[in-house]
Amino acid sequence: MPHKSNDAASEECHHYTRLVQVPWDIRNYYHQRFSIFSRYDDGILMTDGAWYGVTPEPVAKYGTTASKNSRRLIYKNRRKTAEHVANASPTEKAILIDCFAGVGGNVIAFALSSRWKRVYAIERDPNVLECAKHNAEIYGVHDQISWYQGDCFEILMKELADIVNHSVIFASPPWGGPGYRSDPVFDLLGMQPYSINDLLNPFLSLTRDVVLYLPRTSDLRQVAARVQKDEKATVIHYCMEGASKAICAYFGNFHFAE
Predict the structure, then answer these.
(1) pLDDT tens digits, residue range 135-184?
(2) Burial level of 224, CB count in 10 A (0-12/13-18/19+)?
(3) β-sheet bridge partners, residue 170
(4) Structure pTM?
(5) Other C-beta atoms within 10 Å of 102: how many?
(6) pLDDT, tens digit, for every residue of 219-240?
(7) Is-contact 148 155, C-beta < 8 A?
(8) Using an 8 Å Cβ cutoff, are 99 and 171 in contact?
(9) How many CB atoms lie within 10 A of CB 9?
(10) Where does the chain have alpha helices with state H?
């Protein structure tokens, strides 16, 4: 049997050690476990559903390349997120809020960057959040993160209302399952359970600086449509082993080194 946390809230958290333990539909992801978490063998916990959406560690942390400009979007190709968010964010912003923390793929990298005075992690699913807390302990950053379980929109407007305007919001929302891969151009207006408008309307009403982590085939016309007149957003492709894995769309006062 796979290892499970002893905590009652974590019955769905597993640490698979043999392929025969792994449900057939996530075995391909299990083969990539050390790309997802390099310290997987130290006891990383995952729910079965989390395998589909966790950000691989190389994408979360490392990389570099080139860029080109258009009228409303700036395109770049990179292989890192946490360092990029840290370096490009306004210097006066010292708080990072991860609105869909999952099992910790991004929020752990944010904490490891040492850029933020405090990192806040929000996750709706209590089992997934328990995995994230456990995984953050493995990476030695549990105490650098404040943990919230519940709806991110409610938490931003209530518990974190006093700090959100002074924060950078990072959101890696659900993309509606692995079926997004079959779409040559991914419809952000039809993304489930939250469309791009469902995300940006509340986020941008709370803070100017928002980063969305989205499918690599996202319709960039829909991103550009959310850019205010006389402003630009930066869109970055994040790559692993030479292939794009996802994009980030940066809205707000972010500054990127050439």
Answers:
(1) 999 999 999 999 999 999 999 999 999 999 999 999 999 998 766 677 88
(2) middle
(3) 98, 211
(4) 0.90
(5) 26
(6) 999 999 999 888 889 999 888 8
(7) yes
(8) yes
(9) 13
(10) 27-30, 33-36, 57-61, 82-88, 105-112, 126-138, 152-157, 196-206, 220-224
